[in-house]
Amino acid sequence: MRRILLILAVIAVGSVAVVTAATAAGRGADAVNPAPILAPKAIVSYQPAAGSTDVNPTAPISATVTDGAFDQVALVNPDGAAVRGTLSPERTVWTSAEPLGYGKTYTWRGTATGTDGRQVPVDARFATLNPARQVRGALNIGDGRTVGIAAPIEIQFHSHVSDRAAVERALSVTSSVPTEGAWGWLPDENGGSRVHWRPKEYWKPGTKVTVTAKLYGVAYGDGRYGVADLSSTFTIGRAQIVKADVNSHRMTVIRDGREVADYPASYGLASDPDRNTRSGIHVVSEKFTDKRMVSERYGYDVMEKWAVRISNNGEFIHANPASADAQGSSNVTHGCVNLSTEDAKAYYDTALYGDPVEVTGTPVQLSARDGDIWDWTLSWQQWRQLSAL
């Protein structure tokens, strides 16, 4: 019996040893081949990519999360102010809703939670480009103005524009009455480039016009970029045309197809080409109740009343009592259109920026050398060739 019990005890101890050995062997296997650690499911991507530099401030900016949703997301500037943006209904895409600034570093902040319930940070940076020079532009027609039927739209830049095609692609003109027209680049003036939009024919009266220039972020070339967008909405007024035939010694005013005034006038002295009133379509650009007129060459320095500028070469329609005896009978002026004081005041009161003044009968034509607005001296085909596109 004692022998039997001893054998059973040995068997029991051996069994425990086997179990213990097996258990120890299992723990050793787990230590050698641990269970894999899974990465969070949510992935955040950025446009532009994290770490990007020289980003155009008008470029599309967004953050997107896949296999998850944003808990919080923001893009902040160097001062900590948040950029305006919109978050999709699913909270998976954030998109900027305003342009950024030049030469700034922007930082993404926030968190996103994946479909596995694990959270990941929203954390990245990028930098916008820093232009060598920012160039301003100015529109010639302000919001709410009423202008004449020959009015060109002008944008004057404060510096030279090399990449004119890039700028022109950023410009648009819309009108309540379909109007064919085109942009044309004129020679630089006042140290900067300038571009005009001219309709093929005179504007239709009553047309509402909106010009938009999305210039911010546009590369002008030579390290220059646009500093701000421009826009304006204005109205074309009544159709008033001045007919100025120098050989008739008269100046007539046609309004909406009907003659409303016929004034005796004196034009530039025909015997002196430098004093000829230029033939061609002039455009009213400015008005002065009193205008000082000076010429060293011809030795005069006078103050004239009711002066309406029609070109930048010194041509005005204005009152001049000194030439009263010639008005209606001969041409004696230095190139201006002289009227009596009463008639000049009557015309002055009706004149709008953009009214055409059609001068005929002289051998000298209005041209680019005569200054700002000579758009209508070109044929439509010639004008279209001034476009950069």
UniProtKB/TrEMBL annotation:
Cellular component GO terms held in the UniProt record: extracellular region
Recorded metabolic or biological pathway in which this protein acts: Cell wall biogenesis; peptidoglycan biosynthesis
PROSITE patterns: LD_TPASE (PS52029)
Domain L,D-TPase catalytic: 240-360
Record-annotated membrane-spanning stretches: none
Swiss-Prot/TrEMBL GO biological process terms: cell wall organization; peptidoglycan-protein cross-linking; regulation of cell shape
Keyword set includes Transferase: yes
Signal peptide interval: 1-24
Active site: 318 (proton donor/acceptor), 336 (nucleophile)
GO molecular function terms attached to this record: acyltransferase activity; peptidoglycan L,D-transpeptidase activity
Record InterPro entries: Big_10, LD-transpeptidase, LD_TPept_cat_dom, Transpep_catalytic_dom
Keywords: Acyltransferase, Cell shape, Cell wall biogenesis/degradation, Peptidoglycan synthesis, Signal, Transferase
Protein name stated in the entry: L,D-transpeptidase
Organism: Pseudonocardia asaccharolytica DSM 44247 = NBRC 16224
